[in-house]
Amino acid sequence: MSTAVLIPSAGGRHPPFDLAQGVLPAGPRQALTPHRRLTFVPCRADAREHELVTQRGIAQRLAALMGCELADGADGVASLGYVIPNDTLMSLAAARRLGIRGEEDLFGGVVPYPFVATKVITHGLLRPDAAAPAGWNPDFNERVRDSVLPGWSVFSVADAREAAQRLLQGGPVRFKPACGIGGAGQSVLHGEADLDAALAALPAEQIEQHGLVLERNLAADVQTYSIGFLRLGSLVASYFGTQRNTLNRLGQEVYGGSTLTVVRGGFEALENLAADDEGARHAVALARTYHEAARDCFPGFLASRANYDVVRGLDASGTLCAGVLEQSWRMGGASGAEVAALQALCDAPARHTARASTVEAHGEFDPLPDGAVLYYRGVDEHVGPITKYALLHED
Question: What are phi and psi of 247, to 5 degrees?
Fold first, then answer.
């Protein structure tokens, strides 16, 4: 039902190597980190059962891969060591309390203000003097302007109405509450009646506190890429891949998994890998711009695990558009595939790439494919029967 996890030998750090290329030295496997303990910290209060079980399973496999003892932050561990929070850490103070000093101390991300971890970071304001949270940096939005779809982030009902009305002149508009995970709470506006209904269903206080995104909706030939960057101790890797959707028990379209091609090294190595795929290459470039802008514009920002959803497709006028939809600086839906690929790279120091998938299947419990790593199979009270697993591809 699951593949074996090989535990690296304890003791010693890797000799120096080129982090830009992510090349592991030859010879016996050594621990990827000097930490002796890996602590899973369940800091996201609304995580559902299937998410928590999956997250703990991923933490367990990362601990084995890194040669660490696994602990749970809820157990009052005095020395946390390497930390895996199940949400982006929303302040520098929160990171310090967990003993995090840099990317080598966690699998996830740290932001200086809570809004930076939500969808609203992606788009600029309607006007320079429009309502915005403390810490808003218009320089970020200027840098990513050509890397995202047309749209605005708003923090008042009046601005939401004005932004939607402007965008509706060019076709349907996607309405995205800031705090929704994945597509939760989103809708497509085709006119004023849809706008009125969407605003009526969302409390004004929620818009003022957390914000709302309105952006161009793509209508045809839509493909969503997953672009990611990973640093696991001394190992650096990045990836491109695609997402797929599935139907839940209510017949709604939801996330169904990702297939990733992972390469040693950072964005430069990834751009070289995607050189022959125009869509993937463009998606990597957009994600890199977004990642580097966040790093430069928000002091204290850290991300040892970064995933960017990049969409490409035709709008209502038939114009080809592409842009980063949102970011994830925490363990996410693709992390099972990330870990499977990292395991393969660690097991074979000469290996340059690995391809892996995650699958989230709703409904009947079908047999698992050979070699699958099962993370969850059961009936979650929120989503019903669901199976979640990862699979390393031999090709």
Answer: -105, 135
Report the residue count for the chain: 395
Query: For 151, phi and psi rounded to 5 degrees?
Result: 170, 180
At 63-105, the pLDDT tens digits run: 999 999 999 876 555 678 999 999 999 999 999 999 999 999 9
Partner residues linked to 103 by β-bridges: none
Assess contact for 36 and 80: CB atoms under 8 A.
no
From CA 125, how far away is CA 99, in angstroms rounded? 35
As given in the structure block, the two tokens for residue 272 are 């070289």
Q: Which class for 180: exposed (0-12), middle (13-18), buried (19 or more C-beta within 10 A)? A: middle
Nearest Cα residue to 309 out of 322, 299, 295: 322
Three-class SS state of 309: strand
pLDDT level of residue 22 (50, 70, 90 thresholds): very low
The interaxial angle of helices 335-347 and 49-66, nearest 10 deg, is: 10
Q: What is the C-alpha to C-alpha distance for residues 238 and 132, in angstroms, rounded to an integer?
A: 33
Predicted confidence (pLDDT) per residue in 274-286, tens digit: 999 999 999 999 9
CB 19 within 8 A of CB 32: no
Q: How far apart are CA 250 and CA 255, in angstroms?
A: 14
Interatomic CA distance for residues 298 and 305, integer angstroms: 17
Quote the tokens at residue 378.
Answer: 């059961």
